[in-house]
Design the sequence.
């Protein structure tokens, strides 16, 4: 009986150490950005939540979200948080240190958007979009993948929740 208890205890301890690693779906940079800006506007979207948002059973929306495991949206006010160009440059470098690569740059609804992609063995594992205008900086961190031609659509959907 004591042997079983020891094995169970080791398993519980192992799981206690592994759970934070398994639960941290978003990038370390996004987690740090959120931690540094605790008063930020934050939204979490999990796969099931995204499916529930598709109340009209829109096939285009369903296709867009089908490979998304979860998303985190964080928006900070530049003035209130003292977020400047140097902070933005540091944020980009931190994502690149996590093996995110430049995907595209575009303007969308008055914001400058830089998209970065992370791949493992040729499979997209994450997409990060950094959005900025004169008033705010936002991060949309997607665990999973979306069709690249739908990036503007997903940005519009997230901005609708703002």
Sequence:
């Amino acid at each position: 009986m004591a042997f079983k208890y020891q094995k169970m205890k080791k398993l519980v301890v192992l799981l206690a150490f592994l759970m934070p690693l398994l639960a941290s779906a978003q990038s370390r940079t996004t987690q740090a950005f959120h931690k540094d800006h605790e008063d930020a506007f934050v939204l979490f979207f999990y796969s099931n939540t995204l499916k529930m948002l598709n109340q009209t059973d829109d096939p285009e929306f369903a296709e867009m979200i089908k490979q998304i495991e979860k998303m985190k949206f964080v928006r900070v006010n530049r003035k209130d948080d003292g977020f400047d160009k140097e902070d933005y440059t540091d944020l980009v470098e931190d994502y690149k240190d996590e093996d995110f690569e430049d995907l595209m740059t575009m303007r969308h609804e008055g914001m400058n958007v830089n998209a970065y992609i992370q791949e493992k063995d040729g499979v997209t594992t994450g997409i990060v979009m950094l959005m900025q205008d004169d008033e705010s900086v936002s991060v949309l961190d997607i665990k999973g993948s979306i069709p690249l031609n739908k990036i503007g659509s997903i940005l519009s959907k997230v901005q609708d929740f703002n």
